[in-house]
Write the structure tokens for this entry.
Amino acid sequence: MLETKILIVSPVNPERNIINFAAEVLHLGGLVAFPTETVYGLGADAFNPDAVKKVFEAKGRPADNPLIVHIAEYDQLEELTDHIPQVGKILAEAFWPGPLTLVVKSSKFVPDVITAGLETVAIRMPDNKVALELIKALNSPIVGPSANISGRPSPTLAQHVYDDLNGKINLILDAGPTHIGLESTVMDVSTQPPLILRFGGLVRERIEQLIGEVQTSNDEKMLRRSPGTMHRHYSPEAKVVLIERGDTLAFEQLYKKYSDEGKKVGFIVYSITVSSIIKSSYGKIIPNDIENYSRLLFQMLRDLDKLEIDVILVESVEEKGLGKAMMDRLTKASHQ
Ligand code: AMP
Ligand code: MG
């Protein structure tokens, strides 16, 4: 068991001594959880294959699920890839730093353990001062999958990282809650046409405004290009049951059905009407605002797990904008 240290760091003006200490831990091959604008990441020096291996071990992540490499400066792209296609340059210029990951052909310097043996590498520049300063202080890109046990909801608070990885990593940098609360959008720009492999914090509509219509990896053959999308994901311990938007009747019926079976039922809704009896049980009624909903989703799933809920009834959202990424996570969580 490692002793996992937690250091509070300012998200606005990250303290230099804390950043330098964290960079030193990475430099020595250690693991540091750090905030990004999407979710907390689990960092290791990308050019230290032994350290990267430890990321897989700590998370219990299957070795065939490649990692995203985080950079802080455009110059760092040169070590990772020999060629960024024009469309990749346009997207990076428009959306970096931000919640967009670009998959490009990898250079020979990228350790195989990162790419799971693929010929491509996934790269992004996070929009978070602590993350950027950490990468700059190490003077090397860092890998940064979500800092949770594989399969569990991604961490949006340092506490979530601690709950999952205490004793398995060296350090957690706590800069408060993450802004977006969902992972980055992953786009493959290594082939024509560019393809969205995973919906996430950057919405499809904004990408299409810039580069025109893009394709998505809906069929299984395409999904294989992004191995991570095939694995079990985003799941709380409880069973997740999706309810149609605004379907109060179905909500009440299912609530009764599971309660009658002796289950402890929780809920997450925004527009469904919740009777006062149900309201007094275990649930969250959130503002009808997709940004709030997505920011809080993983946290709510974790909170309900702590109450040892058996079934969580979750109200669906419209599959547009951030709703697309949310429904992707929720559908996967409900398929366990
Ligand atoms: P995570 O870091 O857990 O948010 O997941 C990273 C996502 O990026 C997973 O869905 C991976 O499959 C995907 N990914 C990482 N590297 C590649 C790559 N070289 N090609 C395709 N998808 C990738
Ligand atoms: Mg993850």
